[in-house]
Design brief:
By secondary structure, the chain is of the alpha+beta class. The protein has helices at about 20, 65-85, and strands spanning about 1-5, 5, 85-90, 100, 105, 110-115. The structure holds protoporphyrin IX containing FE.
Length: about 120
C-alpha cells in the first residue's frame, strides 16, 4: 500500500516514532517544556486528552493493558502523594535534555527531597 506517498511493501515491520509525535512543535507549543498543565482544563480540574496524545499507541497493535495501566498509575501515584511530599531541590536541572542511547533517557538526574507527611 501507499501511505503519504511512501510505498509500504507487504509484511514490512513498522515502528511508530512516538518521540517525533510527542515533540512535534506543530502539535505541542514548546514541546520540550515540562508543562503538565497543558493537558488540563482552564480551571486545572479536568484532564483533557488531546487527540495527538498517544502513550498507548494506536490501531490494532495498541496497548491492550491501557485500562489497567491508567487505573494502576492513578492509584500508585495518588497513594505516594498522600503519604509523601516530593519536591525537586535546587540542584535539579528541570530542562528536558535527553541522552539518545538505545532508548531515550533524561540527561540530568533529578534531585528530589522526599519527606513523609505527618498524619
Ligand atoms: C503506563 C503503562 C503502559 C504504557 C505507557 C504502555 C504502552 C504501550 C505501547 C505504546 C504499546 C505499543 C507498542 C508497539 O507499538 O509496539 C503497548 C503494547 C502492549 N502493552 Fe502496554 N503499556 C502500559 C501498560 C501495560 C500493561 C499494564 C499491560 C498488561 C497488563 C500491557 C500490555 C501490553 C501488550 C500485551 C502489548 C502488545 C500488544 C500487541 O502487540 O498487540 N501494557 N503498550
Amino acid at each position: 500500500m501507499v501511505i503519504a506517498g511512501f510505498k509500504i511493501p507487504k509484511d514490512t515491520h513498522i515502528i511508530i516514532n512516538m518521540w517525533a509525535n510527542d515533540n512535534d512543535p506543530n502539535v505541542w507549543e514548546n514541546p520540550s517544556e515540562f508543562r503538565p498543565e497543558r493537558h488540563l482544563s482552564e480551571d486545572h480540574k479536568t484532564f483533557i486528552r488531546a487527540e495527538q496524545l498517544i502513550p498507548f499507541s494506536l490501531g490494532k497493535r495498541s496497548c491492550p493493558g491501557e485500562g489497567l495501566a491508567v487505573v494502576e498509575v492513578f492509584l500508585y501515584l495518588s497513594s505516594l502523594l498522600q503519604k509523601y511530599d516530593i519536591k525537586a531541590n535546587h540542584k535539579t536541572d528541570t530542562s528536558l535534555e535527553y541522552l539518545f542511547q538505545f532508548t531515550i533517557a533524561a540527561k540530568h538526574d533529578p534531585y528530589v527531597t522526599i519527606t513523609k507527611r505527618r498524619k
